């Protein structure tokens, strides 16, 4: 399938988001490490030729996501990475496949920048404005289809995604290592393979599990993904420990 060349999304973000993104990128890349001080407010004001309110909004956003700690009269410092605890963790498919002893391979089917319309806006829970990166790819284990991925990335929140070569790097793996998130929602359904059967290498009536996931940074939508698994390749396991004492009810 022809892969359309990606176009860089125009810079339309508010300035505070540009400042936040620049600092966030340095933290996620390791250029700024836990304990490092980030520039003082007056330094950022001079660097970006902006008001204290704009800088404060950027730093407040970084503090809300847990990337920095703001200390009165001392400045702002990079924090230790936050550990996310969720009923369902966000999986890294490449890591999961390799952990099970299989050889992972990615097949990028399509990648293109498109405007947010009413349909995609409803899926992403966004207003019908701005741009998305729409990606379709197939994850393979030992050369066999493991999962079909259909993903939208909000380029207003993650503009650098438009420049990433997702034929080499799985979108989920890249997002987990480069973009912090504060909230996620999962939805799991069971369907027949239907029109996805050919991509998954199964018959149209083959049972499949569909995992849909939305992630946000504060209230800003980051990505929506729909992962379709051959039911033979997917299992969902959760282990729970009771907090009731030995004399309590089980």
What is the CATH level 1 assignment of the largest domain? Alpha Beta
At CATH level 3, the topology of the largest domain is: Chorismate lyase
What amount of the residues lies in strands?
A: 25-35%
Rounded to the nearest angstrom, the distance between the terminal CA atoms is 55 Å
Q: Helix proportion of residues, in percent?
A: 10-25%
CATH level 4 superfamily of the largest domain: Chorismate lyase-like
Query: Over the alpha carbons, how many angstroms does the gyration radius reach?
Result: 21 Å
Alpha-beta classification:
alpha+beta
Total DSSP helices: 7
Average pLDDT reading: 83
Provide the succession of SSEs. Answer: HHHEEHEHEEHEHEE
Strands of the largest sheet, in order across it? 3-4-5-8-7-6
Q: What about the largest sheet?
A: 6 strands, antiparallel
GO molecular function: DNA binding; DNA-binding transcription factor activity
Pfam families: GntR, UTRA
Domain HTH gntR-type: 13-81
Protein name: Histidine utilization repressor
